[in-house]
Amino acid sequence: MENNKRYTVGVLIGGVHTYFPKEIINGIIIAAKELDINVCFFLGTQTKGFFQDVLGTYQENTYDYQFNTIHDYALVSGLDGLIISFGTLGIYLKDPDATRFAYKFNSIPTVFLSELVDNVPNCHSLIADNYQGMCSVVEHLITEHHCERILFMAGPAGNTDAEERKQAYLDVMKKYSLPVTPQMIGQGNYSEFVDAEVEKLLDNNYRPQAIVFANDDMASSGYKVCKKRGIVVGRDILFTGYDDCEVAADMAPPLTTVAQDGALMGREAVYDIMKILKNKPVASRRVPVSFVQRESCGCAPAAGKAEQAVDLALEVQKLNRTIGNMKQEFINFQRKSWFIPIIARDLNECMDDETTFCLRVMERIKELRPNSAYLFLLDPPVTYDGERDWVCPDTLRLASYYRDGEAVTYMPYDRPLVTEENPISKIMDDGKRHEFMTFLLFSGEKQYGILSCDIKQDDFSFFYVVSMQLGLSLRYLEISKIEAAHRREMSHDIETVRRENRALDLISGYDELTGLLNLRGFTNQTTKVRQNISVRKAYMIYADLDHLKEINDTWGHSEGNFALRSAADILKHCLRGSDVLARIGGDEFLAMVTSGSESFETIFRDRLKLACQELNESSGKPYYVEISAGIVSFDLEDNADIQTVISQADKKLYEAKKFRRQSIRK
Crossing angle of helices 460-501/339-348, nearest 10°? Predict the structure, then answer.
């Protein structure tokens, strides 16, 4: 590969639970292995049809519009090329215009599948010969089976494949002077969930001889409807489909259809992208299709198929192998079915710690054995109602990942930001070849980020369910953070009331500017604590505000006072109400904390760093408010001299100040 570069190609594709998109994905994966390139699939899907057909209910608010936003994450992925299966995703878009969609992504070489975009620079098309393929099946019904009353179940309106197949039906019917009325054409959606539309088509037409379906998935729906009505396909009514899906030959009777090779189309799309990247000419073109004659159209079985000698031992062996495979699939299903409640339970246990939450996500996904996985979160989450134009947020950050057998997470303030210079593909680059499946994480109108996993194609459906659970858990995490903030505010308010109630008799022990204890108040309070506390271990914190003199000299003493009050508030929020905190003069603060935790210093420093970061992001000031701290532990029962302990903490502070900024000017 040129300059030893491993290219990364993105794929935008929808309807991935149906046959033809699966075949396209399969062909892309095969070509990616052959050419040693990375692939990032951005997967769209829809849930409304599933709820209607499988659960028997209609869901008004499935928030399926959220899935259409995943395409824009390709724009921040640092891709070298892009394959857009517009025929599988365009039908779900708010704006189904292919040309406008193409212009949005044509900053890099792009191949459009199942759509014509020859007038868009940097884009070219691969599309099946839909018209000739559909002409062949309709003419077969007319010339070979003498059908005149032929109905048509169309694909999604506005979809190029569907429109070309419908036009072929209309033209052939006109060629043979056969009537077509609006009642003879049903409106489908390419899914297997069109039972109601097939029922309507049969009710509105007296004794039809045949139904031509625009794809095989809708034909399978027609089989179900006819079986329920006692109509025998291939005898009482003739059926044809389009695609030659994996079960077409095993339907009862086998389905007459048109074979279009989705795997070949996906494979050629990858090779076309690579040619373009190497500055080789590539032309938009039609991919040939072929007529597949079977019994559903009334034809007799192929010669030699009906009478064949049966090897009983071989058939038993096949049956045993099938049963064994089914048992293994059932075992795998049982194992996976337990995963969803387990991950929900585990994540629910760490709602008070976002870092632990993200690490737990990767630890659980690790158990599903992906090659690698990455969790990117929006900071903050984004609300999207599906009405306004979607703009991909510029706040996407890597929260945690799993690769090379290790799960890693970042503190919120250390998460790498996705930028044009640091895109998703660069963040996920570990020198190995990958095939990433990318899932959107959302709950209702709230969008939280994406999950990108290098997994097998067969695992897509289960990881889709996992992603939906993660979206729900992230919603609970957000609610938990809001509730925690309210609790902190309430605690702060209660502490304020207590402080005010003690103000009259303790005023001499408090600092006027910050409201904290002064040195006198600190001495009195620590003496009481040492007399009444049952915990042995304690920590002394000696802290000061970085560069107070620079703030006073540059922006004035009013800003210096703001910085001191902010520092006091930060320290208060990082400590408990029972801890003793004081401003002992100038920019210096003292705190005594009773705690038996061995990890207190690490926890406190992380809190302090995060609190300073949050203030500086929201203050609007031209300078940073940051605090250096020295921390020492001591035993309360040893009657250690407090002044000695303070002196030791002061020395630690001196060492910590060596690592502060040279200047706090932003």
Answer: 20
